[in-house]
Amino acid sequence: MGEGRPERGIPDGLLMAVIVLLLSMTLLVWATTGLAALFAHGAWPEAVTLTRTPLALRHLVTQPRDLPAAWPDTPADSLSGYGLFWGLLIGELLVLVVLGIFVVGTVARWKAVRARRRADALALVESPRTAPGAASGEVSVPAPGAAPGAVAGQEGAPAAGSAAASATGPATGPMAGSGTEQGAGSVSAAAPGPTPIPNPAPAPAPSPAPVPVAVPAPRSARSTDPVGAPAAGPLTSGPLAPGVFYGADRGDLAARAVLEAEGPVLVTTSDPGLWSGTKDSRAKLGPVHVFDPSHLLDTPDRLRWSPVAGCTARETAAARAAALLAPVRPLSALDSATADAAETLLRCWLHAAAVDGRPFRQVLRWAQGTAAHEPVRILRTHVKAAGGAAGELESALTGHPQRREVAQELTARALGALSSVHVRDACNPHRADSLAWESFVAEGGTLYVVGEAIEDPRTRPGAMPLLTALVSSVVERGRGMAGRSSAGRLDPPLTLVLDDVAAVAPAPALPDLVAEGTAQGLPTFALMRSEEQARARWPHRALVG
């Protein structure tokens, strides 16, 4: 009798709401009393305490105009009038209501945007993939010698197949030796001569639905097959092999490469959907970090990294300078001397900032001509500075004036993104960021490097130099770990899924990674829009795996 009867009593949620409301009103009345007296007399009243506020609130409910009676221990001349008190209280309530509505609306909108992006990404990754010719039209053809009616047409036309079967069925005997072939779904013409009347036969049992044999359409020249690889089947067949992939629609391929990786993964992309569609799956295998200096993603958890890190070693400073200048480096051989001078300046500045503990933004100040001789002094006097670095920097600064000016302008252009507050913050790491950066490979984690796709970085590089330097640093770190291992390769491998790499982070070492990365435990998936884009970024090397 009592089963299914709802429980009686006050719900816990309602009880907690009432308690919170009472506490809030108590705090609000106490603050309003003090603020009203402060505005009226310039001082906080005596004996207006938080513990006495509940009794004062009870009295004000019955006598809203008798403010001194609500606070009997407080001198009446130190309190304000009831008009100022209630005006402040109502104003504070209105402000709190407006703020509450704004916060609720903002949180609801943020959750809706995240849910929509997650749903779109999951639909993109988990959508069933059809055969290559399904989108371009399929023609169902029967196998040679198949029984009549064994091949059905497209869905929605079963009657055509059954009509063809009934029309061709009785003529199997006389037509067997005529050599006439029957087309799928066609009705054979009546043969000359008398047609035998077949004996009535019982209705056959319904056969299972036939499976059409699809004839694939010709392969497109802009397919997403790796360069030099044989024609592959559907994306769902077998593991994905590393290589270079061209095509406008690369989302499914990049997501599959990320999800199939067995070890740590480095991902570059300009598509927030790739991050939102794969981060949850990768989080089950290890830590997930995001380097997003332009704030393209909807996440507060971003990794910070300074290009100065590790530049106390002269070789690291040289590699870092080359990576930072790669997006803006001129391609003409006539400008090679200027590019080399810019690389020398940036290498010495990075080394000076690293040995002296300066932040990365100090390098931008030096590149803009502020305290240009300060790094020379640091390199000449600091005990950790590499020998000869001070003379090399001083020679570059006092050399050909026009070449020096162009080199400084080139360096300042590469570091121009530091004028943004978000980018400066992304280059100012804390200790937790440094630990996460150093351990994500060993922990099997995932690092997403996200940036805006830029087609002409030599005029407006944005954050591309920073992203390129980070990717190159991860690659060099992986190579170093592979070289120190007994097998000469990383195990498990560090998978590099470089989506839109030519427009996000054109690392100078990409041709070597495509050719030799798999042998070192650095399998590389380089995804780009076209071969022309690849030749524009790496004109002197071919991307062949």
TrEMBL record:
Chain spans, region Disordered: 146-239
SUPFAM superfamilies found in the cross-reference section: P-loop containing nucleoside triphosphate hydrolases
Segments passing through the bilayer: 14-40, 84-108
UniProt KW Thylakoid keyword: no
Ranges of Low complexity composition bias in the record: 146-192
Biased composition (Pro residues): 193-215
InterPro entries (alphabetical): P-loop_NTPase (IPR027417)
Record keywords: Membrane, Transmembrane, Transmembrane helix
Keyword Membrane tagged: yes
Source domain of life: Bacteria
Record's signal peptide: none
Protein known as: Type VI secretion protein
Species this chain originates from: Streptomyces telluris
Organism lineage string: Bacteria, Bacillati, Actinomycetota, Actinomycetes, Kitasatosporales
